[in-house]
Design goal:
Elements (H helix, E strand, L loop, with lengths): L2 H8 L6 E6 L1 E14 L6 E14 H10 L3 E5 L1 E2 L3 H12 L8 E2 L6 E8 L2 E8 L7 H14 L5 E5 L8 H13 L3 E5 L13 E2 L3 H8 L14 H14 L3 E5 L5 E4 L6 E3 L12 H14 L4 H15 L10 H11 L3
Parallel strand pairs: 1-4, 1-9, 2-7, 5-6, 9-10, 10-11, 11-12
Antiparallel strand pairs: 2-3, 7-8, 12-13, 13-14
Helix pairs in contact: 1-10, 2-8, 4-5, 6-7, 8-9, 9-10
Length: 336
């Protein structure tokens, strides 16, 4: 993609309004250094230097959209606890709209803590409890979506399999939004067997796609275009879900875009260095959707999404990409 074409698309970012629906989390990073092994057990002793907090899960998708200048609402469940207050403040300070946030006092806000030393993640600690969202909460959320739909350009489902995204809710919102000619995309989770039927686009990663298609895992071929198992997975999911587009992210191999009746398009990787894959999928679905509603073709949106993912994996922690960083990445990729 030429930089000039990206500029045309990016000029529309700030005019767009998206709603992100899904599982909300607070990402905590504990940064430290290791100089010795514990005398109590064969594990490193981490001397803590600092801590930082970022929106995680669907909240990180919203953050990525907002970082590019679009207006974004986030809909998901938090508890009535200090972790929720911290997450609220971070999102609010970043400009994310919280009117659609749902609260249930019996729910514990999900926190994922990563302990990092020497640019390496040593361990992750998850604080969460199984919780099924109540029908009353989902009904309130659906009514909010119905009321605000005319002002929205698109909806993103971000499913981390934590209980907020359920089939009936997805079906009702998808039917409503597609009838209103809105873009609807999803980042699925294989632990939650949702049928993502007739969305604008669905974006699983490679392992999620294989699991959803019922194809046994196979090690990737060197050239994704010659990976017959991957192509078969794409064909099966196109038939099963009937999306306009299926975008499978391939980690260090980039992405593959599938459209019914067309040959798959391979988008090669753009990251020059990879430090941390945390949140790369969040960035991919956020920028793919934002680009689509901003006038990009599906292939252009995939390319922008691919560059955005390349930017964030070169950063430590749950990161985002800015339009300026995207433009620089695109310019670097131009033939010289």
């Amino acid at each position: 993609m030429q930089v000039e074409r990206f500029d045309q698309i990016a000029a529309n970012f700030s005019k767009k309004r998206l709603l992100v629906i899904g599982d909300l989390m607070l990402d905590e990073f504990v940064w430290g250094r290791v100089s010795r092994i514990s005398p109590e057990a064969p594990v490193p002793v981490v001397e803590v230097l600092r801590e930082s907090f970022f929106p995680g899960g669907a909240a990180n998708v919203a953050r990525n959209v907002r970082e590019c200048g679009a207006e974004v609402y986030v809909m998901g469940l938090v508890g009535n606890d200090s972790q929720a207050e911290r997450l609220r403040k971070i999102l609010q300070d970043g400009g994310t709209r919280l009117e659609t946030l749902a609260v249930e006092s019996g729910f514990q806000t999900i926190v994922k803590t990563r302990i990092i030393a020497r640019q390496q993640q040593l361990v992750r600690v998850d604080r969460e409890q199984a919780h099924k969202v109540t029908p009353a909460t989902l009904d309130r959320c659906f009514q909010q979506v119905r009321e605000m739909l005319p002002s929205l350009d698109g909806i993103i489902f971000e499913d981390y399999g934590k209980g907020f995204v359920v089939q009936s809710f997805v079906d009702e919102i998808t039917q409503l939004a597609r009838a209103a000619k809105k873009v609807v995309t999803a980042d699925p989770n294989p632990k939650n067997p949702i049928e993502w039927t007739r969305l604008t686009a669905v974006k699983p990663n490679r392992s999620e796609a294989y699991a959803a298609a019922g194809v046994p895992w196979q090690e990737p071929e060197t050239d994704p275009r010659k990976d017959h198992n991957l192509v078969e997975v794409g064909k099966r999911l196109l038939k099963r879900w009937e999306p306009d587009q299926l975008l499978i992210t391939l980690g260090e191999q980039g992405m593959m875009l599938f459209t019914e009746g067309e040959e798959p398009h391979h988008i090669p990787p753009r990251a020059r260095e990879i430090y941390d894959l945390s949140g790369a999928g969040d960035t991919a679905i956020a920028l793919f959707t934002l680009a689509l509603v901003s006038g990009a073709t599906p292939l252009e949106a995939a390319e922008i999404s691919n560059h955005a993912s390349g930017v964030v994996v070169a950063k430590l922690g749950t990161a985002t990409s800015t339009p300026a960083e995207l433009r620089e990445s695109l310019a670097f990729a131009q033939p010289r």
